Amino acid sequence: MNTQKIEDNSNTKGLFKIKQIRNGIVIDEWESPNLIVKEGRGYYQNAALDGLTQKAAWYLGLFAGARDPVDTDTGANVSANSTEISEYDEATREVWTPDAALDDSTTYQTIISNSNNPATFTLNDSVTINGLFMASESTIDGSSGTSILIGETRFSSARSAISGDEIVVTYQINITGSV
């Protein structure tokens, strides 16, 4: 009988990387780790292991609310709870178009991100941005009962933006496992 203790240090983390561009010049750049909410964790497990139909696309949204994300936030309530921003030119939330997942067998890490296809929001009014989220519904202020929220983040400080600014977002998900 094998009596060796096996310790699993698996985890899943999300990270938003954001650039604020004004007149073609990067005026601010920051990163913000996110909370992968209960609904998102459940979706991962059920879509991967229990036959749940996978969502065909994922979308990023900006929010103005000065509130910390909570584990019980969902795709149906994130827009209202976090005060979603709609003051941008794009007709829907910005689609998250991932690159192929990268696997590093040395660090037991798999990363998927949209680094080659960052999402860009072109603002058409002055706004204060406090955070971001990723959900399965494209509708701005959407709250359908079928929307799934993967994760959301509140920035370490609010960001002021003006009409014409571009908010460029890369979102990556890291899954790490080790024994």
Structural features, described:
Strands 1, 2, 3, 4, 5, 6, 7, 8, 9 and 10 form a 10-stranded antiparallel β-sheet that branches. This protein starts with 10 loop residues before the first strand and ends with a strand. It has helices spanning 38-49, 78-82, and strands at 11-22, 25-36, 58-63, 94-96, 102-104, 109-113, 119-122, 127-135, 149-161, 166-176. Helix content is 9%, strand content 44%. It has 179 residues and is mainly β. It has one domain (14-97, 115-171). The longest helix has 12 residues, at 38-49. It contains 2 helices and 10 strands. The relative contact order is 0.30.
What topology does this entry show?
Layout: E1 11-22, E2 25-36, H1 38-49, E3 58-63, H2 78-82, E4 94-96, E5 102-104, E6 109-113, E7 119-122, E8 127-135, E9 149-161, E10 166-176
Antiparallel strand pairs: 1-2, 1-10, 2-9, 3-4, 3-8, 5-6, 6-10, 7-10, 8-9
Strand content: 35-45%
Secondary structure category: mainly beta
**Average of the residue pLDDT scores:** 88
Shape: globular
Count the DSSP helices: 2
Question: How many domain regions?
Answer: 1
Distance between the termini: 18 Å
DSSP strand tally: 10
Largest sheet: 10 strands, antiparallel
Concise overview:
The protein is built from 2 helices and 10 strands, in the order ββαβαβββββββ.
Please name the defining characteristics of this protein.
ten-stranded antiparallel beta sheet, globular, mainly beta, 179 residues, 9% helix
